[in-house]
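Private note to self, pasted from the team thread so I don't lose it. Backbone tokens:
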């Protein structure tokens, strides 16, 4: 699972990345602070099944606290994109190519309008963040179109001459973007393209195909950063009205980073995604620090229900992609060979089956699959059983 963090410079992308991972990332209020992509591990939050089974889990990766399981995901923070990125402006081609392996994109926008289209600082409310939503769509679509059109005439002629299926040929050519033959088939059908004569597809039809494939392979959720600035709330309402096809989530990366660092220092108790925190050592905080934390409590957590960072990650994985969290376990034994209870939790794509999960655990389990057992209900299920979020599954194989 790879989540790409995108947006123009100075919107708070690297702050979001650092707040989500606590990894070291250079942060500054000027364009192109990030040149090479930052990569780190963050976590999505799952209501843990251990309480349903009456056992405290012991994760091998991630962690579990107060009934919440935090499952690791990989984040990639690429350098800021500017208009014309697909043409190479601002090293855009390099930065776009960094996004190829991403499963989903988090678009960080400056909801307060304090940065212009180049990422330069301007007074709050001076720039319309709606422009950023449209600009990123254009850059991603043109990027896909450029890849699709590269050598198109020769490619399409070869497909016809060698009597290949266009959907399989395109899937092979675009596999680095997670494009599959079924996805191409669905897009061609939706656009009513002639599969037998791809060489006759017009520029407009190729553009439509590029857009459709981009939407299916790089879905976007939008984090409305700097929401603690008053004008940002009005902008979020306008964004939701103008672009109903997207999820816009209020977010304050600065607040999340401050809370995470205070918790790491042992000054507060804070669970990511929650609407409050508890002071542990107020005597160690100076007046400025106490005021800053109280500002976050009142103007971010209480007003919006959280800082937004954890919610963005969770919704990107579970809502937008439709992934489910699945635990391997046994009806009679939840421990692994080292005595850890429910040590693993895997993120599986939507509509994954028990057989898919068996292969995820080990090829031998998939190849020798006999049945699976739902540990919570103790019922036996077949290979076509569609996994549900928070299932605990035991795989029974012939070896």
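Design output:
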């Amino acid at each position: 699972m790879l989540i790409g963090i995108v947006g123009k410079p100075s919107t708070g992308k690297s702050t979001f990345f650092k707040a989500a991972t606590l990894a070291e990332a250079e942060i500054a209020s000027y364009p192109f602070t990030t040149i090479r992509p930052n990569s780190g591990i963050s976590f999505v939050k799952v209501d843990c099944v251990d309480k349903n089974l009456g056992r405290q889990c012991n994760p091998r990766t991630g962690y579990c606290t107060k009934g919440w399981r935090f499952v690791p995901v990989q984040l990639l923070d690429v350098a800021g994109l500017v208009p014309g990125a697909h043409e190479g402006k601002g090293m855009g081609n390099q930065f776009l190519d960094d996004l190829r392996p991403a499963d989903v994109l988090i678009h960080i926008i400056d909801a307060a309008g304090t940065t212009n289209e180049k990422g330069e600082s301007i007074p709050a409310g001076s720039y319309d963040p709606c422009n950023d939503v449209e600009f990123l769509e254009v850059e991603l679509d043109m990027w896909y179109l450029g890849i699709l059109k590269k050598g198109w005439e020769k490619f399409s002629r070869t497909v016809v001459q060698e009597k290949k299926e266009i959907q399989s040929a395109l899937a092979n050519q675009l596999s680095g973007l997670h494009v599959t033959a079924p996805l191409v088939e669905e897009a061609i059908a939706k656009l009513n393209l002639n599969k037998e004569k791809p060489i006759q597809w017009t520029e407009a039809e190729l553009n439509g195909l590029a857009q459709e494939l981009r939407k299916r392979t790089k879905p976007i959720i939008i984090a409305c950063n700097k929401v603690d600035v008053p004008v940002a709330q009005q902008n979020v309402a306008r964004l939701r009205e103008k672009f109903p096809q997207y999820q816009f989530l209020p977010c304050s990366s600065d607040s999340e980073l401050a809370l995470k660092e205070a918790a790491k220092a042992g000054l507060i108790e804070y669970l990511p995604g929650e609407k409050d925190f508890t002071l542990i050592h107020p005597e160690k905080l100076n007046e400025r620090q106490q005021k800053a934390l109280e500002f976050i409590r009142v103007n971010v957590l209480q007003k919006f229900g959280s800082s937004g960072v954890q919610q963005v990650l969770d919704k990107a994985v579970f809502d937008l992609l439709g992934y489910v969290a699945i635990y391997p376990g046994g009806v009679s034994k939840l421990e692994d060979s080292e005595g850890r209870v429910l040590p693993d939790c895997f993120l599986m794509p939507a509509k994954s089956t028990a057989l898919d999960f068996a292969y995820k655990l080990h090829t031998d389990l998939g190849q020798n699959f006999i049945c699976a057992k739902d540990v919570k209900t103790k019922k036996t299920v077949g290979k076509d059983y569609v996994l549900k979020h928070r299932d605990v599954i035991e795989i029974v194989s012939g070896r």
